[in-house]
Amino acid sequence: MQPMGYLSAYEPPLIGPGAISHVLRRLGPGPTRPVLNLARRLTDAWAGEWHDLRAELGLAPVQDHPLWEGQHSPIRSLGLFPRVLGEPQPDWPPQARITGFPFYRPAHQPLEPKLRQFLEQGEPPLVFTLGTTAINDPGSFFEESAAAVQRLGQRAIFFVGGGSQERYGDGSGDVIAVSYAPHELVFPLARAIVHQGGIGTLSETLLAGKPMLIMPYGHDQADNAWRASRLGMARVVSRGRYRAGVVERELSRLVDDPMPRVAALRVSREVSRERGGALAADLIEAALRQVGSLPPGPRP
Q1: Residue 157, CA distances (Å) to 115, 120, 122, 179, 228 in order
Q2: Is 238 a member of any domain?
Q3: Which residues neighbour 237 within 8 Å (Cβ) at sequence distance 6 or greater?
Q4: Nearest residue to 207 via CA among 187, 221, 193
Q5: Which CATH number fits the domain that encloses residue 138?
Q6: Are 211 and 234 in contact (CB under 8 A)?
Q7: What ranges in the chain are assigned the alpha helix state H?
Q8: Is the pLDDT of residue 171 over 60?
Q9: pLDDT of 28-49, one tens digit each?
Q10: Which of 48, 129, 250, 282 is least enclosed, having the fewest CB within 10 Å?
Q11: How far apart are CA 20 and CA 39, in angstroms?
């Protein structure tokens, strides 16, 4: 789902202290390979129960690590992310293919009437969301965001999950909080989007063509944020620095400078040409036919 999943020495993932990854990227693949090999050895113990399960199922022992080379099928490996985030590298598996993100578009998704009315009755708002995981541990994200919005004098929407929707209104009618709304219906109407950098939220923002401010929580999010920032449409603030004054300054830079908007529109055009779900399905069917699990010919 993320470019960093291929663990390339040519484009090392941004994990752990950011300074280390930045240094490795400058030094190139030669110095990076030993670092990644060390990381692989240090995580060998993580796979102990996986090896035990293979033995329990009567499968032959293997040396492959399920988080490293063992994650890739020898027939086909799919990169389910927008190509603008990362091109194939020389040390990717030769069977890897980038499909683009498989956007899910269920039919007849409604917007809450109050949210629809809000979007129709004013200037494009700032949108603040923490995706599906980070929303469970928001910390002071919404409080600091609300303070930044007040300083900026902007309209805003907060996606607060199960949090209180009443806490973040400022009484002016320029700020609204909802538990959730389909991103594809709201993001194209936003002025800028603030989020945690998860691959789903990031891909929706790329497709919507909006500047973004990213506050990574963990896992792949810092790496995703770095990749978005090099496209010229994103700025990044660490969780520890996410305070109203910093957010105000970073959002001002995003919305006052036309270049992030230009970059975002360019990226949106590229992402909109991808057909991630359809291409992934075609590649999976081709792989199944290759191993004889599907008969040749068109789909039934």
Answers
A1: 9, 13, 12, 10, 22
A2: yes
A3: 213, 214, 215, 246, 247, 250
A4: 187
A5: 3.40.50.2000
A6: yes
A7: 18-27, 29-42, 48-56, 113-120, 141-152, 183-186, 199-208, 221-229, 244-256, 258-272, 276-290
A8: no
A9: 888 888 988 888 888 888 999 9
A10: 48
A11: 13
Q: Examine the pLDDT at 191 and tell me if it is beyond 90.
A: yes
The DSSP 8-state label assigned to residue 17 in this structure reads S
The residue range of the domain holding 89 is: 78-101+274-300
Instruction: Identify whether residues 124 and 227 lie together within a single domain.
Output: yes
What is the token pair recorded at 22?
Answer: 């930045």
Residue 106 counted as domain residue? no
Contact 25, 12 (CB under 8 A): yes
Q: What is the pLDDT of residues 118-145, one digit of tens each?
A: 999 889 999 999 988 888 888 899 999 9
Coil, strand or helix at 128: strand
For residue 269, give Cα distances in angstroms to 10, 76, 207: 27, 27, 8
Same domain, 11 and 62: yes
Q: Is residue 108 part of a domain?
A: no
Q: Are residues 258 and 158 in the same domain?
A: yes
Assigned token pair, 185:
């219906």
Asked whether the whole model's pTM tops 0.85, one would answer: yes
* Phi, then psi, of 225 in degrees rounded to 5: -65, -40
One domain, residues 66 and 148: no
Looking at the structure, do residues 97 and 139 belong to the same domain, yes or no?
no
93, 39: one domain? no
In a domain, 278, yes or no: yes
From the centroid of its chain, how far is CA 32? 24
